[in-house]
Amino acid sequence: NAGVMQNPRHLVRRRGQEARLRCSPMKGHSHVYWYRQLPEEGLKFMVYLQKENIIDESGMPKERFSAEFPKEGPSILRIQQVVRGDSAAYFCASSPSGTGSGSFGSGTRLTVV
Amino acid sequence: GNSVTQMEGPVTLSEEAFLTINCTYTATGYPSLFWYVQYPGEGLQLLLKATKADDKGSNKGFEATYRKETTSFHLEKGSVQVSDSAVYFCALSDQSNYQLIWGAGTKLIIKP
Fold it and tell me: Which of residues 53-112 of A touch B (CB under 8 A)?
């Protein structure tokens, strides 16, 4: 049973470009959580999604950031018009029910140049 | 608000040494407490957890006891190995039960 898969592992974008981060949950998991880790800091909750629904996006910046988890396919975290401050590691977790302490992916390390 | 504070790293020890990584928390109510480990190049793995006061979580020789009186959840291991080298994160779940609040992580380096 494959774990949570995130891709790409590393992503480099120029300022103003768009970044798309993908997360495929574990088989049978319909709950997905996104976290961001800034350098030298702990992870910070961004958004919680259940298939086709956003349950809690209280940790996500109001502008430029969006997330989706369609009926088919991976969850996508989209960052439009990236800025240097968006450089961070983005982690995704999934669980079969609404508990956040699920399985985590290896993360996507976004670098904005 | 809820928060988690971990001792700063890196922590460098020799093989077979005793390990303690301190973790204290601030929370309303009765959170669950977790330790996660991240080995180089890998994702986060749940190491152990405790859901109520005085519970002891244990796994792979690691232990941590939920101490409500000192609001602590220190990670301990009696004899570390080189393979324990990793970054260790302490976390708590808030009242929502899905949102995890994280410490900054402690890098552990074990020298042979």
Answer: 56, 59, 91, 93, 95, 98-101, 103-107
Instruction: Work out the mean pLDDT of chain B and round it to a whole number.
Output: 93
**pLDDT in tens for each of the 113 residues of chain A?**
578 999 999 999 999 999 999 999 999 899 999 999 988 788 999 999 998 899 999 999 999 999 999 999 999 999 999 999 999 999 999 998 877 677 899 999 999 99
**A56 chain-B contacts, CB cut-off 8 A:** 96, 98-99
* Contact yes or no for B89 and A43 at CB 8 A: yes
Nearest residue in B to A41, CA atom: B104
Those residues with Cβ within 8 angstroms of residue B69's Cβ, 6 or more apart along the chain or in another chain: none
Output the CA–CA distances (angstroms, integers) from residue B112 to A34, B13, B17, B20, B81, in the order listed. Answer: 37, 9, 11, 18, 8
**Which residues contact residue B48 at a Cβ distance below 8 angstroms, ignoring those fewer than 6 apart?**
B34, B35, B57, B58, B59, B62, B63, B64
Name the residue among A4, A45, A106 with its Cβ closest to that of B99.
A45
As a whole number of angstroms, the distance between CA B98 and CA A1 comes to 23
